Amino acid sequence: MSNKKQPPTKRDRTRRQLLDAAAKVFAARGVDAASIQEIAAMAGVANGTFYNYFATKEAILEAAAVHYGVSLCQRIDASCVQVEDGAERMSIGGRNYMLLAIEQPDLARFLMSVAVASPIWDEQIRPYITRDLLLGIKQQRFHVASKDAAMTMIMGTNMAAIRSILAGKAGRSHVVAVSATILRGLGMSPKEADEVARRPLPPLPPASEA
Predict the structure, then answer these.
(1) What is the rounded CA–CA span in Å between residue 181 and residue 46?
(2) Which burial class, exposed, middle or buried, applies to 40 when counting CB atoms under 10 A from its CB (0-12, 13-18, 19+)?
């Protein structure tokens, strides 16, 4: 039996067009203001074609959130499969998301809208962060007042940094500084936090290999 990967079908290509269009429209307009008609027009398909793939705006938001947000988490996770230090794993995840705002700002804007509007963020993305936090606590790399307070600090700081980058108020040096600040907030010494935040990022695998 051949394991050769089959080329995408026309249906696959149209679905991808719709997901790409949804990410752009949600990023530009916000989830509440975005419409199915705008997404279909951006994708270059008829409104009726949209409904052949997705029943509602919420359905395509969820699908796009999984396609982009969850797949990015999976790629980050795959990139640091050999990394056992919870602090380094935390830094790798946060820096990759901040760098996304520099390298793919439209996609970062979309993921910010997902964080606010879709349960996918809490259900499928947040657990990656929680796992690395708990690993760091178990390894006594982190010393926090409570897990929930630590998660609030981590997510709030990362999102604020991404907004600053998207607004053109910060650049690459901010990525390392914010990562080190989060690690300090989790109880690491300044020297340790700064060293971890400056470690080279492992390369992300292509999405198809995550």
Answers:
(1) 48
(2) buried
Residue by residue, DSSP assigns 143-183 as --S-HHHHHHHHHHHHHHHHHHHHTTS--HHHHHHHHHHHH
Question: Which pLDDT tens digit goes with each residue over 97-126?
Answer: 999 999 989 889 888 887 777 777 888 888
DSSP 3-state of 130: helix
- CA within 13 Å, CB half, 163: 9
Question: Per-residue confidence at 3, pLDDT binned at 50, 70, 90?
Answer: low
- How many angstroms separate the CA atoms of 16 and 28, rounded? 18
**Token pair 């790399």 is at which residue?**
141
Neighbour count for residue 78 (Cβ, 10 Å) = 14
pLDDT in tens, 137-156: 999 999 999 999 999 999 99
Please give the span between the terminal C-alpha atoms of the chain, in angstroms, as a whole number: 24
Task: Classify residue 54 by burial, with Cβ atoms within 10 Å: 0-12, 13-18, 19+.
Answer: buried
Q: Where is 132: in which H helix or E strand? A: helix 126-138
Could you give the count of Cα atoms lying within 13 Å of 53 in the half-sphere of its Cβ?
Answer: 26
Structure tokens at 91: 């830094």
| Rounded Cα distance, 27 and 107, in Å | 7
Mean pLDDT of 84-91: 98
Predicted TM-score of the model (pTM): 0.82
